[in-house]
């Protein structure tokens, strides 16, 4: 007997795991029949989830936290028991702008690109026509990564530059139309902009934070509790999909699946490039290899580290200009659910960390960490500016934040 489970998603490469779990039969092996519901914006993905049109969703991680805290709408507690991927986004600028701030044919150094961009940002601000960037949602990792990078380079978001919301499938259109000067979005939409000659990729967000959390599997907390057995079955199916996703021999097949009209409805060649960690930075160039651009399995990448949710909360406070609240921090810590992830995968061959939080940005070389089962070696996870986030000192981290002042 199979049980139906509906999952909302946007046409992005990092929606791969639910799609592959369905198509390859991993969900069926767990007794689940997945119905995948495609949307065009994060707002509609969230609406379908909250009103019960879907059971779960592929979702930008900060949106799950913002919804739980009631930012922008009445609070509804969401749970995220599985991380669908880390990073996988890029910053693409109009090509004339990119030529002034980044080296030709290579990704730039974040600090150097930011310093060059600051000069232009100040020129444009003085001329009364500030630079404008498009991000996919106010509560998205794209927004926070872009703001973190800009502010660390001396460019004040909302004061020196403007940031507006553009749904992912329209990011290339907005750049091509000149509505924005740059976009921060996931694949394949940077590559679509490049192929049209509308922009040039200057940075990958993995250069801003090497192991930044990106999408999660989100659901209403009540659904997770009521359907706990099915949720754990789904986690096992997604974990199998993640393992298969990184198999080089499966790349061509998986790209063809994702390219189908019912999923991404995109050029299979662009998807193959993203899956292979290759980026075409500018039209007419040669793709470069950027290791771990799409990061979705190693190093317990799917484990919902509570410390990553807390870092996102720190950025929410920073850019919403709201004070720290210990009660809210406790609610945030409950959004990511490592306990459910552990329960689902205990006794399998999936490595499980011994801890549920860690100091983010502290690793500059590989380190073997303690585990509940299996072996895990974490690699470099640094922020580009060398800052470290200790989840036990969130209030202190915010107090030391000179960039936001």
UniProtKB/TrEMBL annotation:
Where in the cell? Endomembrane system
Is Nucleus one of the keywords? no
Q: What is the top-level taxon of the source organism?
A: Bacteria
Q: Which UniProt keywords are given for this protein, alphabetically ordered?
A: Cell inner membrane, Cell membrane, Membrane, Transport
What PANTHER family does the record tag this protein with?
ALIPHATIC SULFONATES-BINDING PROTEIN-RELATED, BLL4572 PROTEIN
Q: Can you say what this protein is called?
A: CmpA/NrtA family ABC transporter substrate-binding protein
